[in-house]
Amino acid sequence: MLRRRISKAGVVLALALACATSAHAESSLDAVRARGLIRVGVKTDAPPFGFIDARGHPVGFEVDLARFFARVLFDDEGRARLVPVTTSTRFAELQAGRVDLLLATVTATEQRRTVAELSDPYFTSGSLILVARDTRLGTLGEAAGRKVAVVKGSVQEADVAELQPRAILITVGSLAAGAHAVRSGQADAFLYDDVAVLALARRDPALRVTGAPIRPRPYVAAARKEDTGLIRWVNGWLAKMRRDGTYRGLWRRYFTPFESHLVGA
After folding, report:
1. Domain 125-216 indexed as CATH 3.40.190.10
2. Is the pLDDT assigned to residue 24 strictly greater than 50?
3. Which residue of 86, 110, 141, 152 has the lowest C-beta tally within 10 Å?
């Protein structure tokens, strides 16, 4: 009799936990609707995904994506509260509840799936090497004994350690800092996401991009763990954007100059 009661108690507890998890998953999107705005972590130092234009306004592919989500939620793109984040701060902002969603060049990895809910991909990015215009360094394989800069906390940090362990790894805080390290001679190369370094090289004749894309991976939106309702909603709209041509329009606006160098959408 006692075992039967314990067994029933366990079933009741499991059902209660399942209901609580389901309620949390659905309530995240309800909370956004009730608040009347969606808080989205975006980058302001990673053109063309997120940057500040000449008028001091945030713009970019992921910024437009955030505003699109606000428009379909509230019929008002101004209901997207854009919260500046960096590679090193973005997940801390998410876990602290200061943003509902990250659209901040988040590469999907198994480790990140353990700490956040990740959406379906909306971009595929490989890493490319940024070097000084006159350098002979062409590939990561040639970087043994050379100083290679990466953004701290990025997937490239682990990639260099694994693919070229004989390189001298230098960590920097941002895309701009990586470019400065190459420009000033503090680093022989900077490894980062393809579009970002292609955009840098396009603006700065002292720099160039070399090599083939390294380890292409998808970019995804990220929400807090168990915010599955919000992620399902994001996935639904990403699929609709692809069907109705909205996604292709955004792609052309920001990526046409680099299209021949990219892995794909």
Report:
1. yes
2. no
3. 110
